[in-house]
């Protein structure tokens, strides 16, 4: 028993040495981890900006001097004259070319209570123009209505008479619903990282070793193939886990730089969330590495291994999105690797209590599949076919 | 002791049955302890296939191979534990140093602690690898690579050695070092089986020579006996004659 352990230790130690000394492959593998927080921060910034601020709209006024009060009202709504435009945005707004023409008799007509016509000119088919136009439209209507209401009130008429029917809109989207999108993306990203980080190590230690002719020597040693496979799995899964941990740590740090309260998001990566995610993702790391080793050992060359194994990376990206599309998803999806984890992660990010039974179930199924892959790979390594591929 | 008994092995091409290769066709021989046994044979005679069957990498269609009485197919791990292998194709872990590689293989053979350390130091000294020991093996010359691989095979002092063309690419000095090494192990009663294409080497080193042709035993005996059998004075001439003649010279 002790000798068995000594062998496994030597095998694992050697795999670690090789993996960690291949600096370039390691950097590429962990690139994902470094990119994640940047992506999260940039995306949340963009989303927050979209949701909270009304970005300034620049339009070309003619006759602005005739209606100073209207101008103030518009600028209160962040609709600004072209003169104020920062140099960087000039090109865009010049192209959109929204013009508002105010007639010279504006003040006079206003005083006399005559209808006034303001002309808005723009290319209405242009999508980029639609939002500014809508905002100008409602700003002008607001302005017009407020004056109209005042006039009626002066004449002693209840302004409510003007609105016999009111449409009350209730947005059922929770304040942080948009943010769930981001956190779901983080979930997909975490699983992709589990698949990608260990990828190069898995290929290198299987197809790579065969191509470098070191596998035959190893297979001639008094070591069971199961131990060989286990050692390679442990090494690849460790790198993959490092990738996942890095993403979690870096993201939880960088999320601090974004003010999420603006969108009412309750998203936080506290210690307990991180630990839960790690428990959830550890089986995925093992599963991913086992699947990659399995495919890489099957393929005929290093090149072939690279292309087949790369396809596997697509799985964690596609499955969660496919599940989002599904209206009635079958029950068994809750148990399967990747789909099960992605459902639980969704709950975690939503702030719903984690269903530990589901965690246990999906982890169990994932580990069982991993074990099956390892055992069948160990068996395959004993067969002649793998040896035949040597020469 | 290594024993090969009536080995048959065919490589079947599933798509084209005509391409089926009969690599071994009833090969039998014995390599005794305390002797150096050489396998000679033209390219494609089945030498490497035979040796791979011996490591347990291939399984024979018929017949069996034993190492110290253990059938390779039945308990490959126990059989390999008594075996030091220098394979046909070998590579090095280029990100490890020579010392780490040898250490790795020593550990795989269950060596630990001080015993292991001493064994590694000894084999490094024996094969004159001291200067290379703590360098990463990337960039090693062919001969240096061979030496490291040899060190891996010898470090655990196995009872049986199987070496597939161990002297290709070695310079004269290293070849001599290897020969001396093998002679020392022979004196200690180890069993050494090696294949080669260098006749002088075989003639100088081997106690017994096995000549394989077309997957069969063509002849066996001491170099002297083989020469007499073929009626030649040089082993090379005898070899050419023996593999060329189909009529059973087989002893």
What is the assigned CATH homologous superfamily of the largest domain in chain B?
A: P-loop containing nucleotide triphosphate hydrolases
Oligomer: heterodimer
- Low-confidence spans of chain A: none
Major sheet characteristics of chain A:
4 strands, mixed
Placed side by side, the strands forming the largest sheet of chain A appear as: 2-1-3-4
Global morphology of chain B: globular
Strand order of the largest sheet of chain B: 6-7-8-3-9-10
What's the number of extended β-strand segments of chain B? 10
What are the main properties of this structure?
heterodimer; A: 391 residues; mainly alpha; 2 domains; 4-stranded mixed β-sheet; 15 helices; B: 251 residues; alpha/beta; Rossmann fold; transmembrane (chain A); transmembrane helix (chain A); ABC transporter permease (chain A)
List strands and helices in order, with pairings.
The complex is a heterodimer of chains A (391) and B (251).
Chain A: H1 2-21, H2 23-52, E1 57-62, H3 68-76, E2 79-81, H4 87-96, E3 99-101, H5 106-112, E4 119-121, H6 127-154, H7 177-197, H8 199-211, H9 215-219, H10 225-255, H11 271-298, H12 302-325, H13 339-350, H14 356-382, H15 384-388
Parallel strand pairs in A: 1-2, 1-3
Antiparallel strand pairs in A: 3-4
Chain B: E1 2-11, E2 21-31, E3 36-40, H1 47-55, E4 62-67, E5 70-71, H2 76-81, E6 83-86, H3 98-108, H4 113-126, H5 142-154, E7 160-164, H6 172-187, E8 191-195, H7 199-205, E9 208-213, E10 216-221, H8 223-230, H9 235-244
Parallel strand pairs in B: 3-8, 3-9, 6-7, 7-8
Antiparallel strand pairs in B: 1-2, 1-4, 4-5, 9-10
Helix pairs in contact in B: 3-4, 3-5, 8-9
Protein name (chain A): ABC transporter permease
Keywords (chain A): Membrane, Transmembrane, Transmembrane helix
Membrane topology (chain A): Multi-pass membrane protein
């Amino acid at each position: 028993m002790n000798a068995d352990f000594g062998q496994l230790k030597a095998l694992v130690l050697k795999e670690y040495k090789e993996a960690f000394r291949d600096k370039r492959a390691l950097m590429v593998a962990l690139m994902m981890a470094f990119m994640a927080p940047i992506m999260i921060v940039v995306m949340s910034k963009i989303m927050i900006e979209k949701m909270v601020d009304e970005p300034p709209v620049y339009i070309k006024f003619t006759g602005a001097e005739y209606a100073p009060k209207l101008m103030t009202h518009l600028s209160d709504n962040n609709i600004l004259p072209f003169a104020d435009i920062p140099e960087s945005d000039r090109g865009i707004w010049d192209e959109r070319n929204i013009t508002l023409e105010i007639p010279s008799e504006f003040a006079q007509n206003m005083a006399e209570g005559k209808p006034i016509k303001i002309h808005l000119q723009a290319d209405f088919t242009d999508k980029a123009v639609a939002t500014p136009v809508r905002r100008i439209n409602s700003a002008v209507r607001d302005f017009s209505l407020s004056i109209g209401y005042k006039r009626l009130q002066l004449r002693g008429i209840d302004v409510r008479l003007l609105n016999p029917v009111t449409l009350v809109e209730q947005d059922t989207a929770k304040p942080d619903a948009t943010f769930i999108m981001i956190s779901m993306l983080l979930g997909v990203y975490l699983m992709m990282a589990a698949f990608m980080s260990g990828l190069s190590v898995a290929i290198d230690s299987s197809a790579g070793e065969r191509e470098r002719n070191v596998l035959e020597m190893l297979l001639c040693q008094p070591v069971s193939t199961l131990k060989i496979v286990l050692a390679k799995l442990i090494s690849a899964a460790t790198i993959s886990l490092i990738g996942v941990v890095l993403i979690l740590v870096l993201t939880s740090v960088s999320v601090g730089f974004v003010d999420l309260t603006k969108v009412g998001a309750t998203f936080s990566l506290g210690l307990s969330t991180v630990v839960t995610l790690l428990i959830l993702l550890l089986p995925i790391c093992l599963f991913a590495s086992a699947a990659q080793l399995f495919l890489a050992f099957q393929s005929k060359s290093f090149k072939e291994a690279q292309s087949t194994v790369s396809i596997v990376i697509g799985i964690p990206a596609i499955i969660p999105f496919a599940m989002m599309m599904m209206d009635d998803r079958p029950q068994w999806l809750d148990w399967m690797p990747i789909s099960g984890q992605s459902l639980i992660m969704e709950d975690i990010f939503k702030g719903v209590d984690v269903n530990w039974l589901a965690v246990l179930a999906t982890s169990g199924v994932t580990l069982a599949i991993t074990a099956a892959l390892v055992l069948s790979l160990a068996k395959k390594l004993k067969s002649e076919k793998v040896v035949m591929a040597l020469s | 002791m290594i024993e090969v008994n009536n080995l048959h092995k065919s490589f079947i091409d599933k798509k084209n049955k005509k391409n089926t290769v009969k690599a071994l066709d009833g090969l039998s021989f014995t390599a005794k302890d305390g002797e150096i046994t050489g396998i000679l044979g033209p390219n494609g005679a089945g030498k490497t296939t035979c040796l791979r069957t011996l490591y347990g990498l291939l399984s024979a269609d018929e017949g069996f191979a034993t190492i110290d009485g253990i059938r390779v197919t039945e308990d490959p791990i126990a059989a390999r534990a008594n075996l030091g292998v220098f394979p046909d194709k070998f590579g090095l872990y280029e990100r490890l140093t020579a010392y780490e590689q040898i250490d790795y293989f020593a550990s795989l053979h269950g060596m630990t602690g001080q015993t292991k350390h001493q064994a590694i130091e000894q084999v490094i000294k024996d094969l004159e690898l001291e200067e290379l020991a703590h360098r990463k093996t990337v960039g090693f010359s062919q001969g240096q690579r061979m030496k490291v691989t040899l060190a891996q095979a010898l470090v655990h002092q196995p009872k049986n050695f199987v070496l597939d063309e161990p002297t290709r690419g070695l310079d004269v000095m290293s070849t001599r070092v290897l020969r001396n090494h093998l002679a020392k192990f022979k004196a200690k009663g180890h069993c050494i089986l090696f294949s080669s294409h260098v006749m002088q080497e075989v003639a100088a080193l081997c106690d017994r020579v096995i000549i394989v042709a077309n997957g069969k035993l063509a002849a066996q005996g001491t170099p002297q006996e083989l020469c007499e059998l073929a009626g030649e004075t040089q082993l090379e001439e005898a070899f050419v004659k023996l593999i060329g003649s189909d009529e059973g010279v087989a002893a």
